[in-house]
């Protein structure tokens, strides 16, 4: 598979790496996810999080396992294990449905690889469309409130809601972003604040209970 890079996923030398989101913002650690057990562990520990990212990481892993020679039957079993990792993640279910269809093709390894890359590209394009459409609704000088984390860490692109903020900032329309800490795991305080800092977006971290004020 070709080399691939997103904010929180990498494919290098036919190996999947994930950015440990539990270590952010103190450390930026890239961890291998080269088998189903490893990826399921990362998902359960929230080192991989965000519905789009979970679905994409599972799809890429299946494609890489096929490229490394795993049989059709073994890939079907791996797919079922990955599906059970987060049954409530809609993207995971939808992506794996498409990968399951690719697995039925005669050259299933090539089909899985093509489908996984297609899913990544579709997510990037979706994020871009959301960012463009959402930014049109942001007035110049806006002060915005965001909760949890919906940026590039959770997707293959610029993000969903946070992608809107990033695009509006590029267009000079964001005066400030209030970032809810998002207890108990602090996805806002740790992840969104980190992403906004990387993008040079002005922000202020607040406790969740301050949002109404």
Automatic annotation (TrEMBL):
<dbReference type="InterPro" id="IPR027363">
    <property type="entry name" value="M1Pi_N"/>
</dbReference>
<dbReference type="InterPro" id="IPR000649">
    <property type="entry name" value="IF-2B-related"/>
</dbReference>
<dbReference type="Pfam" id="PF01008">
    <property type="entry name" value="IF-2B"/>
</dbReference>
<dbReference type="GO" id="GO:0019509">
    <property type="term" value="P:L-methionine salvage from methylthioadenosine"/>
</dbReference>
<protein>
    <submittedName>
        <fullName>Methylthioribose-1-phosphate isomerase</fullName>
        <ecNumber>5.3.1.23</ecNumber>
        <ecNumber>5.4.2.1</ecNumber>
    </submittedName>
</protein>
<dbReference type="InterPro" id="IPR042529">
    <property type="entry name" value="IF_2B-like_C"/>
</dbReference>
<comment type="similarity">
    <text>Belongs to the eIF-2B alpha/beta/delta subunits family.</text>
</comment>
<keyword id="KW-0413">Isomerase</keyword>
<dbReference type="InterPro" id="IPR037171">
    <property type="entry name" value="NagB/RpiA_transferase-like"/>
</dbReference>
<dbReference type="GO" id="GO:0046523">
    <property type="term" value="F:S-methyl-5-thioribose-1-phosphate isomerase activity"/>
</dbReference>
């Amino acid at each position: 598979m070709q080399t691939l890079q997103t904010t929180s996923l990498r494919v290098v030398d036919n190996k999947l790496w994930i950015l440990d989101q539990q270590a952010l913002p103190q450390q930026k650690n890239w961890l291998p996810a080269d088998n189903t057990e490893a990826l399921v562990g990362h998902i359960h520990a929230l080192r991989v999080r965000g519905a789009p990212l979970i679905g994409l990481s599972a799809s890429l892993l299946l494609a890489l396992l096929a490229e490394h020679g795993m049989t059709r039957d073994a890939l079907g079993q791996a797919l079922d294990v990955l599906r059970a990792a987060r049954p409530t993640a809609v993207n995971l279910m939808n992506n794996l449905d498409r990968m399951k269809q690719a697995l039925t093709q005669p050259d299933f390894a090539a089909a899985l690889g093509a489908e996984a890359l297609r899913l990544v590209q579709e997510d990037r394009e979706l994020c871009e469309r959301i960012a463009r459409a959402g930014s049109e609704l942001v007035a110049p000088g806006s002060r915005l409130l965001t909760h949890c984390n919906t940026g590039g860490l959770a997707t293959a692109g610029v993000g969903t809601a946070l992608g809107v903020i990033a695009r509006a900032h590029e267009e000079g329309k964001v005066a400030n972003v209030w970032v809810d800490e998002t207890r108990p795991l602090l996805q806002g305080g740790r992840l969104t604040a980190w992403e906004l800092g990387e993008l040079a977006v002005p922000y202020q971290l607040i406790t969740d209970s301050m949002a109404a004020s």
